[in-house]
Amino acid sequence: MTVVRPHVLVIPFPAQGHMIPLLDLTHKLAAAADSNLTITVLTTPKNQTFLTPLLSAHPSTIHSLLLPFPSHPSLPPGIENAKDMPNSLRTILLSFSNLHQPLLHWFNSHPSPPQFIISDMFCGWTQNLAEQLNIHRIVFSPSGAFAYSTFYYLWNHLPKRVNPTDENEVVSYQGLPNSPKYPWWQVSPLFRSYVDGDHDSKLVKDWYLGNMKSWGLVVNSFSEFEKPYLDYLKKELGHDRVWAVGPLLPVNDTFAAGRGGSSSLSVDDVVSWLDQRREREVVYVCFGSQTFLTDEQTAAIASGLVKSGVHFVWSIKERVNVNNGDDGDDDGCDDWSAGLDESRGLVIRGWAPQVMILRHKAVGAFLTHCGWNSVVESVVAGVPVLAWPMSADQFVDATLLVEELKVAEKVCEGEKTVPDSDLLSRVLAESVGGTGEETRKKMLELQAKAVDAIGEGGSSDKDLGCLMEHLQISLKYDVS
């Protein structure tokens, strides 16, 4: 009697905000499968270190498939991650799709190939691969259900501006819960780059439509957070195979601490500094792995922090000179940081242990770009948000937090907008000064729902179990 283990191929998109939650899901699948599942994770040479903790934790269950990152005429040599070229997402997406043929060859030569593909929503080309192989493909959305619903609407309806030059022309998402509306400049940049008749645009459109044809959808969210939008997706997709399995978080502090890049401070240094602060007196400031602040924005934030008098941790991404790949001029950084009081604040240049910072009792507010991973992490930590959406789905995320759930306050919007430092200082001071208790109360209520969702018998735990059943996570016997 031969034991045949169900086999799943996981394909993350090479952007940190996409890879991390899908790898967290992969860990959950491996752990819940009780070693009855074989998982292969696709990676490229410069991204394989992200897999190290998973491979160490599940050596008999999770394996890596290392393939060279494919070239593209518009992609500089050595680029394998969107963080290295944040303004060329479409180019990386197009280049990554050239793994179709190598993967097809791998499948056809494998003695026990996967029966399922779980791939990121930016990998819509894998729908064609799954159809060629006659297997099921499941889409993973690192964004929330609200944001994914807007993507679905855009590519399904292809709305156009009446005035092609009016960046403020409003796009109405008719049929979505609460009928959201956004000016054109706040619509998905990938969609805004679509051009009728352009070959690459057609490919991107076909891949998004491929997502809609997938056999199932997994979302990094939970029912109590986004139920109207999860219900909308089930209705529009025409099936119930939409699983909200979040919040997806690192397994433990070791996983959390080991997933970042270079930093000016160690995790121990950051935690030690926070340990010296009082409960909920610190504002954490971070705008994600792909946002570069302008000099004016940086100076405005620094001024706001100084004027507010708050304690703070500020994680700032150093600028990169795209012409030669070297770090930007450090003298500019010294200009804005010169007025900061080191006894009141901590500046982290580079990667910050965000999950650990948010969970620390000293942190009382989070100034963020509202990337979905940051949103989820703030909810689980119970930390109210000061929202400054910059681009992509961040405007939708801010709407959910500020207008619908009222667990956040919007302080600015737009990737080039410079806030008024006086107004910013007031908001910063109030966020940890006791006047935001109603917002804090609502966030703590949402935190409790998030914890319940991923606990045993919670909504996300049940959805994960349902996903496992569909993946046939049980021993199959070939008795021939």
Keywords:
alpha/beta; Rossmann fold; 15% strand; 480 residues
Strands, count: 17
Strand content: 15-25%
Total domains: 2
- Output mean pLDDT: 88
Can you identify the CATH class of the largest domain?
Alpha Beta
Global geometry: globular
Largest sheet data:
7 strands, parallel
Main sheet: strand order:
4-3-2-5-6-9-10
- Which spans have pLDDT < 50 for at least 5 consecutive residues? 320-333, 474-480
Q: C-alpha Rg, in Å?
A: 22 Å
In the CATH classification, which architecture of the largest domain applies? 3-Layer(aba) Sandwich
Helices, by number, come to: 19
Helical content stands at 40-55%
CATH topology of the largest domain: Rossmann fold
CATH superfamily of the largest domain: Glycogen Phosphorylase B
- Helix and strand content put the structural class at alpha/beta
Kindly describe this structure.
The protein is α/β, with parallel strands linked by helices. 41% of the residues lie in helices and 15% in strands. It has helices at residues 16-32, 52-57, 89-96, 100-109, 126-133, 145-157, 189-192, 199-212, 223-237, 253-257, 267-275, 295-308, 330-337, 354-359, 372-381, 394-404, 421-431, 437-454, 459-470, and strands at residues 2-4, 7-11, 38-43, 62-66, 116-120, 136-141, 170-172, 181-183, 216-219, 242-244, 282-286, 311-316, 345-349, 363-368, 385-387, 408-410, 476-478. The strands form 4 sheets. It has a 7-stranded parallel β-sheet with strand order 4-3-2-5-6-9-10, sandwiched between helices. Helix 6 (145-157) packs parallel to helix 9 (223-237), helix 12 runs parallel beside helix 13 (330-337) and helix 12 (295-308) crosses helix 17. Residues 320-333 and 474-480 have low confidence and may be disordered.
